[in-house]
Amino acid sequence: MTGEEKMEVVATGEVDEKLYSRQLYVMGHEAQRRMMASRAILFGLSGLGAEVAKNCILAGISSLTLCDPSPVTSYDLGGNFYLTEADIGTGKSRAELSRDKLAELNQYVDVKVAENSPASLTNDNEEDILNLIQDVSVVIITVPLSRQLVIAINNKCRSIGASFIYATTTGLFSKIFCDFGSSFVVADKDGEQPASSQIENILPSNPATVKVLEDHGRHGLETGDFVTLARVKGMKGVFTDSTKEYEVKSTGAFTFELVGLDLSECGEPATQGYINQVKKPVTLSFKKYEDALEDPGDLMMSDFAKFDRPALLHLAYKALDSYLDKYSELPEPGNVDMAKELIGMAKSLDNSILADNENAERILMHFASGSRAVLSPMCAAIGGIVGQEVLKACSGKFSPIQGFLYFDGDEALPDALLPAEDLP
After folding, report:
1. How far apart are the first and last CA of the chain?
2. What distance separates the 2 farthest-apart alpha carbons in the chain?
3. For the residues 307-314, what does the mean pLDDT come to?
């Protein structure tokens, strides 16, 4: 395809069905067009940043601006597949060295390095960093930044109506935070076809209770969904309008109530008929990063075998923020003194969480010791999730993460830290 043909496709909003065939099957044309009209800026091009950039570009975002003035280090080579040992010491930034290869992934996406990029992603350059956040749909951070700077970027996103995603991987531990604003509209919360079932009966109760035929499977509805009823036999005069919508309260796999509908005076139950789900937009309200740090609410579970882990990791990352604010760098691998200092910071923030978990100090020791590590499998896994959140932010389809999501691979770690002299 020539450059002129490419520009014509972008200008008309035409979807390349061959390139995006699998995505169109899941999202549909309208959501894909929204994705193709969205712009994002990505801060951080180490391992996780490279994965997120790749996923956004392959998904067909309109443009992606890369911002990472940091030079390449040996840690980056563990996750960014576009960087090599030859890139170390060249004086070029990770963004500059990654841009050309990323741009080759999708001819329709404008991939560029941020103009007037700050000298570093630190508090000293806060104004320059905020000036880069203009006319974008999504802002993504994939490297640990100071708490002050993350809060400032999040507030800037709120002021211009951009979605905000902050994700980091620190060794075998990771976190994702999403703030899509105070009133983010999800056009389709699950992307599934509307549920439909055959009615077995509708009981004359208050509220009315509907039971579907068990032979046809579960009704697939959740509390808060809406349905229409058609071809109902019995209860004359009640269900004559097949376009009328009823709110649902799920009471089981095969039963639900019609909220606010009193049929206690109708006598005999209704039999037969059909229900059809009505998909409605849902408006979600997100917390700002600053507020969610202190009051995260119900943390999402990534592993139900680790029910106490999200609270511990939330505390661990708050302690890591304090450590980063104090020293402007992460703890060294295998350094017991630095790890113990981070544990002390965690205890000063909330000692009760550590006291209730006998394994907490071991986990925090490994968390601190591996905080600089960039591991390809973790970057790939978390990068895939972040890519999905970007897609949700741009398309308004599927339910996004609200607040924090923590994930870890603690099972792969030994009981005690390896001696510092055994580490590369």
Report:
1. 47
2. 84
3. 93
* Per-domain boundaries in the chain: 3-187+375-412, 196-278
DSSP conformation letters of 292-357: HHH---SPBPS-TT-TTHHHHHHHHHHHHHHHHHHHSSPPPTT-HHHHHHHHHHHHHHHHHHHHT-
In angstroms, the CA 154 to CA 232 distance is 51
What does each C-alpha distance from 383 to 45, 95, 226, 229, 375 come to in angstroms? 12, 17, 34, 43, 12
Q: Over the stretch 112-165, which tens digit does the pLDDT of each residue have?
A: 999 989 999 999 999 999 999 999 999 999 999 999 999 999 999 999 999 999
Q: What are the structure tokens assigned to 1, written together? A: 């395809």
- pTM, full prediction: 0.88
Q: Which pLDDT tens digit goes with each residue over 162-211?
A: 999 999 999 999 999 999 999 999 988 888 889 999 999 999 999 999 99
Question: What's the CATH number for 196-278?
Answer: 2.40.30.180
How far is it, in rounded angstroms, from Cα 170 to Cα 143?
9
3-187+375-412: CATH topology is Rossmann fold (3.40.50)
The helix or strand, by DSSP H or E, that contains position 289, with its residue range, turns out to be helix 289-294
Give CA separation, 58 vs 49, 105, 134, 135, in Å: 14, 6, 23, 21
In angstroms, the Cα distances linking 284 to 81, 185, 213, 281, 287 are: 36, 6, 33, 10, 10
